[in-house]
Amino acid sequence: MTREEIVAQIKERLGAKIVDFHEKSAKRYYVEVRPEDVPEATRLIHKELGARFQIASGVDTPTAIEILYHWAFDQQGFVVTIRTKLDREHPEIESVSSICTGTEWIEREMWELLGVHFKNHPDLRHLLLDDNWPEGKYPLRRDYEK
Amino acid sequence: MAKTTIVPIGPYHALQEEPEFFKLHVEGEKVVHLDIELGYNHRGIEKLSESKTFEETVFLVERICGICSCSHPIACVQAVEDAGDIEVPERALYIRSTIGELERIHSHLLWLGLAGHFLGFNTVWMWSWRYREDVLDILELISGNRNHYAMMKPGGVRRDIKAEDLPAIRKMLDGLKGPINLFKGAVIDDPLIHARTEGVGVLTKAQAIDYCVVGPTARASGVAIDVRRDHPHAAYGLVDWDVVVMQHGDVYDKAIVRVLEMFESIRIIEQCLEKLKTVPGPVDSNPKEVKPGEGIGHYEAPRGEVFHYIRSDGSNRPARHKVRAPSFMNVVSNRVAVLGETVADATIILAAVDPCYCCTERMAVVDAGTGRKVLSSQELIRLSQEKTERLKKELGHEGPKLKLER
Amino acid sequence: MSFAIQALTRSLNVFHVAGSACNNCDIEILDVLTPRYDVERFGITLVGSIKHADVLLLSGIFNKKSAVRLKHLYEQAPKPIVVVGIGGCPATGLMFRDSYNWDVPPGEYIPIDAYVGGCPPKPEAMISAIVKLIGKLRGG
After folding, report:
1. Rounded alpha-carbon distances, angstroms, from residue C93 to B200, B336, C85
2. B230, A72: Cβ pair inside 8 Å?
3. Burial, C5: exposed, middle or buried (Cβ in 10 Å; 0-12, 13-18, 19+)?
4. A69: which DSSP letter?
């Protein structure tokens, strides 16, 4: 499949579920979907289109907590980022680790550093921080103070 | 039912990046489960980066890892350049690749030496580290430091490679070919290394895709990915080289991929040095600002893809900086690679993804029932080395012979 | 010179603990032992257990998780022991000093006898530090 075909597939299959589509350059695409559509987008992009999971970035912005799942298409040489915005007060999203095992650790990391709850994650416990880390303190939040 | 015993490996070690804590669950000699605990090395770099300017950030990410100390900066500056649409002069691209490949050679030599140590061939360890010094000499000549080269900056590189240094670099590089050939022979032809590594710690292609592993770990399992080829950056699209791929996913293939990659690295450096003779400067486009936006930079470090995501809000500091090191993806795959293997082989399997070797220096076997220590760290390395000795006798072989001609 | 110091400064058994380091200092420490610098000629060897150590080398900052381990290690060490901080991190924390995951430099909770500056210090600097330290201990 060529790059154009893959991009067309993503647009067609996700259809109305795409909130925003942004082509930054021929190598970087940003697709925004609602949180409930992330598992479907993951299944499409990983299982059917064969993308490799690079990593997910959690970003705390003033209005929402954004999660960006970066997927690399190595044969075609471009990166598609699935973006989703979560409520800052109760950030919660379905885990995609059952679809792609590679996401398991980064979900744990976002849970402990950013306070995002991943529903149905097999093993949600501390990865990087001490087990005695105070609850409710998330270092990557904007309002975190040492 | 057999009793399960836990073998803790770690938490931290003397030699490699990322102190990790492996808990091997064993039944007798057989490994039945692996639990990995991280965090002994967590410094909060992503948060720190938000308080640094784009130029300072490069120095910070350089200190994520001392072995990949130019991989992270290259990925980081590429992310900044992607976010701010910054141009890079052609000469700077060749310099970036030269430094990157020199780093790959010294990193692979380091791995090879340690692999030799854990298999009980300290000769291989000492020799490969001795030739690693020669690579560090080249880097010192170019950058002024043996490690932490401080060469990268958004928009180019910090220093040029001087024309009068090129012949000296070339000569030192030629001097490396003999020793690397020697190590190739030591790994490929030696029946003992075959016996210890072939079919050991297999990561299948399907597992490699599911765990999204990167770098030599993926390429040894038949997943032909290499960021340098697939997403061309620096000078990798401008020179001629090949991606090394093996099919079996065992420790042996992982070693072969690394050894053969060193030859490709030398090829790349030679071509870059040729180009540096003719391609004119400058080496830096001196960007004055980074536009608001977001950017992704990735680079093939010796251990696999390094990934950086940077969001700029138009100020002189990143609003968010996400870093992912290759071992973050590779180490998880140990969970499947080590299953069903024996404790004596666990050392080399855990080491084969090149994560954090010296965990093993702090290995200790603890009986889960009593919490009493049964085996100490050195005893575990001894177990591995004894297995080699035993095989030596069975095969009637002396181990790799390094006949040095220098 | 007491008997303990005399015994301590003969053939140094070094135990090396990497905190939350970038591991560059750790690699350089091992470099000192490999053929180019080869301090094993003088009987300096790396040992696998703190119980055998005369010298404890620290590298990197010590974060909340590894600081606990360091305290345990120091308690288990046979005394007298010489503690040396390698690189700038154990002394000041360098660029990691504002990190949320650490509190104070290790010098605040265990006694450190010497620091070797640099990021990372060159092998020559470490060798020179060892020589000076031995001289100092012997009252030179």
Report:
1. 41, 37, 11
2. yes
3. middle
4. E
Domain CATH for C88: 3.40.50.12280
Residues in contact with A138: Cβ distance below 8 Å, sequence separation at least 6, in sequence order: A112, A113, A114, A115, A144
> C92-107: per-residue pLDDT in tens?
888 888 888 888 888 8
| Tens-place pLDDT, residues A24-47 | 888 899 999 999 999 999 999 999
More confident position, B395 or B96: B96
Residues in chain A closer than 8 A to C100 (CB atoms): 139, 144, 146
**pLDDT confidence of residue B359:** 29
- Coil, helix or strand at residue A66: strand
User: Which residue has 């536009």 as its token pair?
Assistant: B291
pLDDT tens for B170-214 read 999 999 998 888 888 877 877 888 888 888 888 899 888 888 888
How many independent structural domains does chain C possess? 1
Tell me: pLDDT of B364 over 60. no
Regions in chain C scoring below 70 on pLDDT: 1, 140
Top residue of B18, B42, B140 to mutate, by most chain C CBs within 10 Å, is B42
Concatenating the DSSP letter of every residue in B339-353 gives TT-BHHHHHHHHHHT
Minimum-distance CB partner of C63 among B42, B66, B146: B42
Inter-residue contact B201 to B336 (CB < 8 Å): no
**Cβ neighbours of residue B393 under 8 Å, at least 6 residues apart?**
none
Name the helix (H) or strand (E) containing B4.
strand B4-9
In this complex, the chains that touch B, judged by 3 or more CB pairs closer than 8 A, are A, C
Q: For position B403, what pLDDT does the model report? A: 55
- Give domain limits for chain A: 3-92
Q: Where are the beta strands (DSSP E) in A39-109?
A: 52-60, 65-73, 78-86, 92-94
Residue B402: the pLDDT is 55
Contact B139, B99 (CB under 8 A): yes
- Expressed as residue numbers, the domain containing C104 is 12-137
Torsion angle (degrees, nearest 10) of CA A71, A74, A78, A82? -10
Three-state DSSP at B154 gives coil
| CATH 3.30.460.80 describes domain A3-92 | yes
Q: Which of A132-146, B53-67, B252-266, B328-342 has the highest mean pLDDT?
A: B252-266
Query: Which amino acid is it at B33?
Result: H
Task: From B33, B3, B71, select the one nearest B324 (Cα to Cα).
Answer: B71
- Residue B349: which domain range? 4-41+342-395
The verdict on B14 touching C (C-beta cutoff 8 Å) is: yes
* Distance separating alpha carbons of residues A54 and B245, to the nearest angstrom: 20
How far is it, in rounded angstroms, from Cα B142 to Cα B276? 13
Q: Is the confidence at residue B368, as pLDDT, over 70?
A: no
Could you tell me if A144 and A118 are in contact, meaning their C-beta atoms sit under 8 angstroms apart?
no
3-class SS of residue A78? strand
CA distances from A119 to A39, A91, A98, A129 (A): 12, 11, 11, 21
Number of domains forming the structure of chain B: 2
